[in-house]
Amino acid sequence: MSLQVQNLSEKLLAQKLGRTVKSFLDYLNIEAGLGENTILGYGRDLMDFSDFCLSKTVETPKAITGPLLFEYLKVLSKKGKAEASINRSVVAIKMFLRFCRMLGHIEDDLTVFLESPKLWQRLPIVCNKDQVAKLLDSPDEKEPFYLRDRALLELLYATGARASEAAGLHLGDVNLKIGYVRCMGKGKKERIIPLNKTASGVIEQYISQCRPTLSKPFSGDWLLLSRTGRPLSRIEIWRIVKKYARYSGLSRQMTAHTLRHCFATHLLSGGADLRSVQEMLGHVDIATTQIYTHVDQERLRTMHKKFHPRP
Fold first, then answer.
1. Of the listed 94, 105, 186, 243, which one is catalytic?
2. N or C: which end of the chain has fewer CB within 10 A?
C-alpha cells in the first residue's frame, strides 16, 4: 500500500460515513482489481462527497437523499470544476451507492438522481514523427542517467505504455530476444506488446551498463530504477519526459501520455488496423481507440481521395 493510499484511508476511517467509503475502496482493490491510481482518484472524490455529507449532518449511507445529491452536483459546478472532473465524481458516487445498496445500507436506487455532464470530445495532442525522433535523441551522453532515460523514452514510444505501466515493469516482463513487453494495465489486465529492434537495443544497453550501477540490495527486479535504487515512480517518469521535452523545444506539447497518443496515431497512419492498436493500447472499448483516426488529418484526406466516388 502506497503512502498516498494509507493517508487517504486514515482520513476516511476518522469519519463515520468515511468508514463505508473505505470498505468500498477495499472492494474495488480486492474484488474488482482496479489500479491504485483509479482507486486514489475515486477515493479523493468520495472523500470530498463525504465531507459535504457531514456538513449536512449526514453520517450514514441510509441518510443520503436525492435532493442532497442534486445539491452536491450544484456545489461541484459552482466550484468551477472541469466537466471531466465532475463526470469522474459522479461515476465514483454512483458506484459507491450501488455498493451500499448491494450491502443493504440503502434500499432505493439513488443513482437515478445523478446525471453526468455531457463531455466534448477533445482530440489528443499528437506530435509528428520528426518531433518524436527529436525527443528520443535529446538525452545527452553527459547526462548521469543517459542510458536509463533513453531506454525509458524508447520504451514509451515503442509500446504506447502508460507511465504507471512502465513504472511497474520487472526485468522478466521484457523479452529482448523475441522482442516483446508484458504489460499490466488497468484492472490488472495483462497484455503483450511487440518491441522494435531500436528500443530493444537501447534497453539491453541500459540493463547491462547502467542498471547495475543504480541497483541496490533492496532494488529487486524492477526494470527502471531511480538514482537511489528504488523503482521509478509514475511521477518521476513524467518529470523525465518533461525534462527532455524542454530540451527538444516541445515542452508544451509533450508528456509521457503524449508518447502514447503518438504511438497509436503513427501506427494507424502507417496502416495498422484499429483492432490491433486497441489490443496494444489495452482499451476495453474500441470507441476509445477510434479517436486516433480523427487525429491524423493526412490519413483522412488519403482515405477520402481513395474511396470517394467523385474525383
1. 186
2. C
DSSP code for 207: I
Which grid cell is 228? 537511489
**Active-site choice (44, 105, 230, 257):** 257
Mark whether 27 is an active-site residue.
no
Other C-beta atoms closer than 10 Å to the C-beta of 234 total 17
- 288 pLDDT more than 60: yes
Has residue 270 got a pLDDT over 70? yes
260 counts as catalytic: yes
83 in a structural domain = yes
282 Ramachandran zone, left/alpha/beta (phi>0; psi -120 to 50): left
Task: Give residue 221's domain range.
Answer: 129-304
As for how many domains the chain has, the answer is: 2
CATH of the domain at 296: 1.10.443.10
- pLDDT (0 to 100) of residue 195: 93
Q: Active-site residue 234, yes or no?
A: no
3-state secondary structure of 233: coil
pLDDT, residue 114, reads 76
Please indicate, yes or no, whether residues 147 and 104 belong to a single structural domain of this protein: no
The answer to whether 294 is a known catalytic residue is: no
Q: What is the mean pLDDT of the chain?
A: 86
pLDDT number for residue 165? 93
C-alpha cell at 303: 482515405
Which one from 134, 150, 260, 266 is the annotated catalytic residue? 260
- On the question of pLDDT at 120 being above 60, the answer is no
Any catalytic annotation for residue 266? no
